[in-house]
Design brief:
The chain is α+β, with helices and mostly antiparallel strands. The chain has a single domain, classed as Lipoprotein localisation LolA/LolB/LppX (outer membrane lipoprotein receptor (LolB), chain A), CATH 2.50.20. It has 4 helices and 12 strands. Strands 7-8-9-10-11-1-2-3-4-5-6-12 form a 12-stranded mixed β-sheet. A hairpin with a 4-residue loop joins strand 5 and strand 6. The longest helix is centred in the N-terminal third of the chain and has 17 residues.
């Protein structure tokens, strides 16, 4: 009986030694950068990009809390669809954005005027560049960093990570916040836009090439014959 008790005790002790020990490791919460640090880091990130080409996938969804009239946002048939296309940027101020599917549209500027061309409607909208930047956040990638910093408050939720959230200083803008994340090649990999209509747009970039040569003619636009031109 004594031997049996010793054997049982030994087995019990071995089992206890083999049992997993509850982890007491505590993970520290991310440390946010100060606004000054975040701004300096973003400026450094953008200044490293002289030119950029990428494919994109863009999807917009309405939040459950959105009460905005549908006619002010995307139409019902466009909501939750994924649009694909090509983006080309040459800093400062040159921008080309072509949606190829499921509908075609081209946004292009050489730095002064911006054109929004819809071939299905045979219509081209011509706008002042300064006015359109607030409505097309992707244009920030081609803009002047000093102007960007004057227009937006920059945050970096985790100073160890290269993603930033920008908030327009003017409250009547088309969007409320813009988050941009940079990948290992120091190029943008994702943009998340929260707009004033309660809609969230995700733009994922792929096949990104940084500082590749782009011909200047890419950013010149001449409306095809028969196009209805609208000045705004």
């Amino acid at each position: 009986m004594t031997m049996l008790r010793k054997t049982i005790g030994a087995i019990t002790m071995s089992a206890a030694m083999m049992a997993p020990v509850a982890s007491t490791q505590v993970f520290a919460a991310p440390v946010a950068a100060s606004e000054q640090q975040a701004t300096a880091n973003l400026v450094r990130q953008l200044n490293g990009i002289k030119s950029l080409t990428a494919n994109f996938e863009q999807t917009t969804k309405a939040t459950k809390s959105s009460k905005a009239p549908q006619k002010q946002g995307l139409s019902a048939q466009h909501m939750n669809q994924t649009f694909t296309g090509v983006m080309k940027v040459a800093r400062p101020g040159k921008f080309y954005w072509e949606t190829t599917a499921p509908a075609k549209q081209t946004i292009v500027t050489s730095g002064k005027m911006i054109w929004i061309y819809d071939p299905d409607l045979q219509q081209a909208i011509r706008q002042n560049m300064d006015e359109q930047v607030a409505n097309t956040p992707a244009l920030l990638l081609s803009g002047n960093t000093n102007q960007i910093m004057q227009s937006y408050r920059v945050t970096q939720p985790n100073k160890a990570k290269t993603y930033y959230t920008l908030y327009p200083k003017q409250k009547d803008g088309a969007f409320q916040s813009l988050t941009i994340s940079f990948g290992a090649n120091k190029a943008p990999s994702l943009m998340i836009l929260e707009d004033s209509l309660g809609q969230t747009t995700h733009v994922k970039f792929s096949n990104v090439k940084v500082n590749a040569g782009i011909h200047d003619s890419t950013f010149n636009f001449t409306p095809p014959k028969g196009t209805d031109i609208i000045d705004q």
